[in-house]
Amino acid sequence: MSISALQKARAAYQPKLPTALKGFVEICEGEPTQSVDNQEEIKALFPNTYGMPLIEFVPGEAREYAPLNVGIILSGGQAPGGHNVISGLFDQVKKLNPANRLYGFLMGPGGLVDHNYIEITEDFIADYRNSGGFDMIGSGRTKLEKVDQFEKGLEIIRKLDIKAIVIIGGDDSNTNACVLAEYYAAKKYGVQVIGCPKTIDGDLKNSQIETSFGFDTACKTYSELIGNIQRDCNSARKYWHFIKLMGRSASHIALECALQTQPNICLISEEIEAKDMTLNDIVEQIAAAVAKRAEQGNNFGVVLIPEGLIEFIPAIGRLIQELNDLLAAHGADYKDLDRGAQREYILNHLSDANKDTFATLPKAVARQLSLDRDPHGNVQVSLIETEKLLSEMVGAKLAQWKAEGKYVGVFAALHHFFGYEGRCAAPSNFDADYCYALGASAAQLIANGKTGYMAIVKNTTKRTDEWKAGGVPITMMMNMERRNGEMKPVIRKALVELDGKPFKTFASLRDKWAEETCYIYPGPIQYWGPTEVCDKTTVTLQLEHE
Length: 546
Prior knowledge:
Blueprint: H1 5-11, E1 25-32, H2 39-45, E2 53-59, E3 69-74, H3 82-96, E4 101-105, H4 109-114, E5 117-120, H5 122-125, H6 147-159, E6 162-169, H7 171-186, E7 192-197, H8 215-236, E8 240-245, H9 252-261, E9 265-266, H10 269-274, H11 279-295, E10 301-306, H12 309-312, H13 314-335, H14 339-349, H15 352-360, H16 363-369, H17 386-403, E11 413-418, H18 420-423, H19 429-447, E12 453-458, E13 468-473, E14 478-483, E15 486-491, H20 501-515, H21 531-534, H22 539-544
Parallel strand pairs: 3-4, 3-6, 6-7, 7-12, 8-10, 8-11, 9-10
Antiparallel strand pairs: 1-2, 2-13, 4-5, 12-13, 14-15
Helix pairs in contact: 3-19, 8-9, 9-20, 11-17, 13-14, 13-15
């Protein structure tokens, strides 16, 4: 493969490890754990992997390890640092025993089921160290949840003499990893399954997972772009930029980018839900800020919009929940109808309150809400052009106010959606180090016979050698939620906490940002330079650990 000058230079970067993972390792086990909710239901579904203790790695004595082979899978959307998880796993399993082998299953979980794989060697991995993307082995969204998939995967696991599978993914992928671990444990197949916490969305976070990998890099990438737009905005002084940011449900990315760049307006979906705001409430809030700046002669500004906003507007959220159940129960009747008939079908089957909400939505938005769900049963919110919807409604509101003599400015809007721009960026030093440590932790969990665990690294606001590595039982993070019309065990998503320090810090500053031009231009991610520049963590993480 051809590589750039940056990638050649980055390949030489040696990720830093926590002290406990640098030499020989022992495990320190804590108390038994339980799930965050629905304890009896989760325990009944996962009797072989429930209640296991938290694990922390500590420096240990030299010991020998029997040879073992490991398989690795990249699952779901890309996130910066995935290649470093694989690199950390590779280096650690080779350190345990040079005879150990690592196999990568191609294009996600489907590679395990379809027996598509490649052996990962030193020569092969050399071109991918500290690089972005998942192109080393590819990723996919096949869900591992059926017995025939588990058994088909077992065939290639036996053929390659694999002792453990590592699944790198988000909350849904790690839920599937837990299901797979439970199945193989129940059957006494002797196959371990370990997860790693990946998602740029930042919503795979809890008492044991301080941050998911890729979040740091993605936010720095988006913040550079937002800063560039803000500088252009402050130069031309004639446009309002409406920027939608990837993040599916939670608003972590929008909040972090706001803290890094100080835009005029940043919407936080969780706050909108908590305040029971309507779409019109949101429009009026933005329009009021536009009008206020216009009074000062500033007909320009920047608005950040989280990708999942539409689901958090309470009336629309209730509509989506009923649509989910309706499509799950009657999708076969619905899918073959033409577009007009589909709309009538939905209107005829919704409750009165949700019917009224659906009827008042712009047709393009109503159409997107009624399309097929993604493989995890979620509305495909990235397809809904919320940034255009809001700017058009704000424009209409301002035109009304102008006719009433309440607005004196000129409003012109430009639109952006930052999503794929951040998912495969070269990882920041933080993500390069964090992911490498996660891969090494996964190897140690395997070496110590663990299954149904997720590799974790904590204390990440300290120096890297002070980080604490270990593992958390995946069942500890699970609860029961409705998916596709059924109650299923899933890892609980972490939403923005409105009483948390990151949001409170933002809330204390946003009124000033709305009126004044307080933009920060953070510039590109730094890979070389002073530690306080090139190794700094997200503002979110700093505030949460002050």
